Amino acid sequence: MALISRVGKRLRRIIQRPGSVELTRYEALLPAVEKLEPELEKLSDSELTERAGKLRERLDGATAFTDDQLVEVCALGREAARRALDERAFDVQVLGTMGLLSGHVVQMETGEGKTLAGALAAAGHALRGKRVHVVTVNDYLARRDAEWMGPVYDLLGVSVGWVEPAHSREQRKEAYGKDVTYGAVAEIGFDVLRDRLVTEVDDLVQGAPEIAIVDEADSVLVDEARVPLVMAGSIDHNDADEEVATVVRRLRLGLHYETDSDGRNAWLTSAGSSVVEKSLGGIDLYGDSGSDRLAAVNVALHAHALLTRDVDYLVRDGKVQLINAARGRVAELQRWPDGLQAAVEAKEQVAATDRGEILDSITVQALLARYPEVAGMTGTAVAVAEQLREFYRLEVAVIPPNTPNVREDQPDRIFGSPSQKLRAIEEEIRKVHETGRPILVGTQDVAESEELADKLAKADLPCVVLNARNDAEEAAIIAEAGKKGAVTVSTQMAGRGTDIRLGGTEGASREEVAELGGLHVIGTARYPSSRLDGQLRGRSGRQGDPGSAIFFASLNDDLVLSNAPDIPEGIDSDSETGEVTDPAAHRQINHAQRVAEGVDLEIHRNTWRYTRLIERQRAELLEHRDKVLRTGLAAEGLEKAHPEKFAELKEKLDDEARLEQLAREVLLFHVDQLWSDHLAYLTDVRESIHLRALARETPLDEFHRAAIPEFHKIIPEAATRAAKTLEEAEITDDGLDLADNGVRRANTTWTYLVHDNPFDSDFEQTIKRVRSMMKMKKA
Length: 779
Description:
This protein is an alpha/beta fold. The strands form five sheets. Strands 16, 17, 18, 19, 20, 21, 22 and 23 form an eight-stranded mixed β-sheet that branches. It is built from 31 helices and 24 strands.
């Protein structure tokens, strides 16, 4: 059997199947790790730290770990964890550590100890002199894990810190100066953007990126890969067209406008156009005089028709707050591109937020691509193994569970309508609750979670709700979800970062709950990704616990209507309950999910095709900017352009180092301003590029033709503008007032994530536009 297993692993590797990293090498090292334990146990704490220090000396500058080095890193880490946390790492955690140290994405099931494995790997990389960033999905986990694992790092002589939104520049600089720094992906990205705008070397907070270990790797590297992180500067108030918002609010679907089946596009009918034109004073929306209002109408229609309160966003504390669909949380720093954000604020009649000029931006994928070495850990990597390989050249190592999974995954139950499905879910909760088993119900969005909670309350089935409205209490809610008789209704469970322990945090009734059957998980619908289904199921059956999971679905769920609405004929349902047992219904729902996953992958690919060029341009510009920041290049250029003016300024200032800084600030201002203008130009090009397909041109090629010549103008144009600034400047006894000479940076800056409405492929976008125009003509 062992021979067959080894042959199977090698064959899987040869044909490049997902999850194909062979573990044989690492498994063979486990006895050597265990053999070192008695020797290390005899050491005092200081001797253990000294032993780690000697390993650091031997590892210094190593490009990779030898087998002997892997063994010692893991043995030292296991002993440090035993002393600091009273947790001896299981063999599977040691395997996970080795996989991370070798640059893989390791798949470890929920509750199997990914946090410790990640910490031991981070310490190992730090011991070979590398700066390590442990990238988390939120700020809470960054601080929790850094503090939790801190004693382990201390015993290994490795320093650790974390960054969070409340930290000052000095605190950030200190945190990034540690061997290991924990931070949410957004926070680390925002610090990258802030560093790109500094005018003095001492203001930089991050060093050069070296190693990233990504927690919830599939969520960060795949689900959020195309999300842009934005640094903006304040321009003025972001006023939406209130008159347009009022008009659009009165429009009705099917009469005044239509939407496509996947809910990504909306357009006016001829009747709708007539109503809008008349309401706005008899303008011609499609003539030259109405073109400005047409853009406002389109964005207001998008906000009205395609974005739903309590699904896509909340209104809380007088503000529109976006909901992260993958996590079910409020995305605190997220907003739509400015026009759409303002339109939603007008729709909900809340105060408009400031409008910002984008100073720089970077996608999550580009952020992680900066690191020469990336590894990751998650419970559901195999399903996206091909994407991890395609976009990051990462392979997946599947780590077996420490204790076999005995969870019972029950077949989906399918119903004809959502209302029939909801009744069946309520009955399922009642039936299981009567046994005393804890129940976790995973819903699709805030609105659904609250509707279900209301129904359960009326049926005398009390529950605790975890959604974007109360995500601040999520750790406490999840921690108690395994208590006897508990019913917890939650939106997306991915990245919650807290295990559900049978019996609750105290574990007093653990054995009783286990005897009852453990945690029962109910999904109220299939998610657009099978990984999200798996993440919800994985909340039950942790570390060999008993448990069960079941999903309910409807042939009229959004997943089916958006991705596979053509239901085969002849599928019958039970006349009383509405339940459908025909295998064709199961095939239809599975097909809809595969379509959704395929669309998401194409969106990812399409976004990366366009952003890849931008990232190359950004890297080239930043190399020039860094040279300006660290040398006297700016002063040399200005002196060459205007020697007399430069000599006069030098005489007035009587300080060559302040003079260099002055020249540097002038040149960097123009470099940064031109880059901001370039990004705005590329956004305009990208939004109109689909129409090029009508002329049988390749949109991506056209994008490159537009983007490349404009980029090459930036550096020479910045030098020209800087020289002109100096030429026109009036020099006083105090030197040069940069603000009076137009060198004025934004007085307020802020960061946020853009909730980009997903692109379709270029072809699909074009076809939809043509289709809508044809509908207009027919009407």
